[in-house]
Write a structure and sequence with these properties.
Elements: H1 2-26, H2 42-62, H3 66-72, H4 81-99, E1 106-109, H5 113-137, H6 139-142, H7 156-160, H8 164-174, E2 178-180, H9 181-209, H10 211-219, H11 233-237
Helix pairs in contact: 1-4, 2-4, 2-9, 5-8, 8-9, 9-10
The structure holds S-adenosylmethionine.
The site of S-adenosylmethionine has 14 residues, from helix 5, helix 8 and helix 9.
Subcellular location: Membrane
Function: Catalyzes the methylation of methanethiol (MeSH) to yield dimethylsulphide (DMS).
Catalytic activity: methanethiol + S-adenosyl-L-methionine = dimethyl sulfide + S-adenosyl-L-homocysteine + H(+)
């Protein structure tokens, strides 16, 4: 009962932070957007923002490593491991949203109304696409509400690319009509983290899921549909 309540609290925390982030990066609806707040000297703002992004990256990657999971499930019951991970990630993002220092100088600003509307539509599409993708992998397992077994899955979007959730984030980070220096720092650093993070994830999944995932790596591109040819028996068996 207590565990159930804990996992619901973690999920609600994630949902709150997630929805706030959509408004934060759009500079609308929420009280403090990415370009709002006290403007500090640029070097100070950059130091603080990079530290906040770094904290999230360390939390997210270290706590996801199998060795770390083995170690801390000696202290945290395995049944709440995922919820604790979700809670820690939500706390790291909440801290970032709260303490983020703006660098509001414009980098680009798109003028024609139709282009602005298209970019906003793409922005919302990115968020919707990533939410949809989570359901393919088991939304409630991913966010700690249910404890499913770790097994290889290849739902529809994952047949086309290996990382649709990350593609959704990348679209949402870059599809923006008004790009400030601060927003660019966020998009650049978060994108770099995604490029590293997916490699770490693939490395772990190869070990955990074995051959089905190895074959999957061979036949399915990372981010861009069609970049790699469809699998042939030869490409799979040629792998040492
Ligand atoms: C936040 S999700 C991101 C998944 C993927 N990188 C993406 O962008 O869609 C991370 C979790 O998905 C799991 N995962 C990723 N690909 C998977 C697959 N094909 N089958 C099963 N689990 C997978 C990983 O083990 C990890 O726990």
């Amino acid at each position: 009962m207590v565990r159930r309540a804990y996992s619901i609290v973690a999920y609600v925390a994630f949902l709150g932070v997630f929805l706030y982030t959509i408004g934060f990066l759009a500079n609308s609806v929420v009280p403090k957007g990415v370009d709002d707040g006290t403007v500090l000297p640029a070097w100070q703002a950059i130091l603080i923002d990079v530290a906040l992004l770094g904290l999230f990256a360390v939390q997210h990657s270290v706590m996801a490593r199998p060795a770390f999971k083995r170690w801390w499930t000696r202290y945290v019951p395995a049944s709440v491991e995922r919820s604790t991970y979700v809670l820690a990630a939500s706390a790291a993002v909440a801290l970032l949203l709260w303490q983020w220092k703006p660098l509001p100088d414009p980098v680009w600003s798109v003028d024609p109304q139709w282009a602005r509307a298209t970019l906003w539509a793409l922005y919302l599409f990115g968020w919707a696409f990533l939410v949809l993708s989570t359901f393919g992998l088991g939304h409630f397992d991913l966010f700690g509400l249910r404890r499913g077994e770790q097994r290889f899955r290849e739902p529809v979007l994952y047949k086309v690319i290996r990382h649709p959730i990350m593609v959704g984030f990348l679209i949402a980070f870059w599809a923006v009509p008004d790009m400030s220096v601060g927003r660019l720092l966020f998009a650049g650093a978060a994108s770099a983290y995604i490029l590293v993070g997916v490699r770490l994830e693939e490395h772990d999944l190869k070990r955990e899921l074995g051959e089905p995932y190895e074959r999957y790596l061979d036949r399915t591109p990372r981010f861009v549909p069609g970049l790699k040819g469809k699998v042939t028996g030869a490409s799979t068996t040629a792998r040492p």
